[in-house]
Amino acid sequence: MDIKLINIGFGNIVSAGRIIAIVSPDSAPIKRVISEARDRGMLIDATYGRRTRSVIVADSGHVILSAVQPETVKHRLQNRETVINEEGE
């Protein structure tokens, strides 16, 4: 089993295979998704107090806030050098 992990900023890592969407937090529907996830206890704030620049939606229903731009997260997913498998390669 090859688990791929992606850095979402400040040393925080999520499983690349669990990501459904990476979106900008600016629209009202996404703000509503964030609010609903907070109410359900499914919100993970990985911004370290910085401005939220991307919202990552996982297949588990978790919503993860990141201070990294959505484009940056996308490039990290596509780049082999920044994707870490469980062996640390």
Show the helix and strand layout.
Elements: E1 4-9, E2 12-15, E3 19-23, H1 28-40, E4 43-46, E5 54-58, E6 63-66, H2 70-78, E7 83-85
Parallel strand pairs: 4-6
Antiparallel strand pairs: 1-2, 1-7, 3-5, 5-6
Description:
With 89 residues, this protein is of the alpha+beta class. A hairpin with a 4-residue loop joins strand 5 (54-58) and strand 6. The chain contains two helices and seven strands, in the order E-E-E-H-E-E-E-H-E. It has helices at 28-40, 70-78, and strands at residues 4-9, 12-15, 19-23, 43-46, 54-58, 63-66, 83-85. The strands form two sheets. A four-stranded mixed sheet has the order 3-5-6-4. It has a three-stranded antiparallel sheet with strand order 2-1-7, with helices on one face.
Order of helices and strands: EEEHEEEHE
Helix fraction bin: 10-25%
Q: What is the number of strand segments?
A: 7
For the sheet with most strands, the description reads: 4 strands, mixed
Number of helices: 2
Give me the side-by-side strand order of the main sheet. 3-5-6-4
Mean pLDDT: 90
Measured on Cα atoms, how large is the radius of gyration?
A: 13 Å
Cα shape:
globular
Structural class: alpha+beta
**Beta-strand content:** 25-35%
Through-space gap between termini = 14 Å
Low-confidence stretches: none
